Amino acid sequence: MPASKTAMLGFGETTVTIGRIGHGLMNMSPENLSRSVTTIAATLAPGGKKMDLFQMARVPTNVTFEEAFGTQIHPISVVEIEARDRDRRGLLSGTIKSLDDIPAGDYRRKLTRFQEEAFAHNAEIAEAFGAVAVRKDVTASQLALAWVLCLGPHMVPIPGTSSATRHLENIAAADVELSAEDLAEISKVLEKGGAASWTHG
User: Looking at the 3D structure of the chain, how many domains does it have?
Assistant: First the structure.
């Protein structure tokens, strides 16, 4: 696998290189899943690491669940609810305040959430959410992560970034304390009809 298609796992001397699974490798056949598990286990073994969780990134379309799992009964260990990185899109961070802020030819102009009606709705939610973050003296991203953490020990936010600064900022979200009043205010913001076309475009 080319170096550009790998990712680093861990820190310092415990860091290992693993393959990055892309959309072109979403083959959920039992053979491919078994090969993935074998590859990951072999990669982690030298560092004394073990795989804690293995999950399908998407619902299999080429095989049934029974075929993919190799059994008809299997415990559900985790359910993933995916919401893409809003800061990278610019809405939550406030770098995109109007459609005029998106350059001509920018791929975001093709996304549903950046069409006029959806954008106006989502921008209103992002602005209200950002106001709560300003009052708490944290970034909107930190507030979002802190809110997910407050939903309970069964909720684990998995932020992604290629920036070391953003990574440290995300970690600091664990120290953000939200009061009952804060959570009520956030809930009021999120109850404004839900975000329009937030995920996958």
Answer: 2
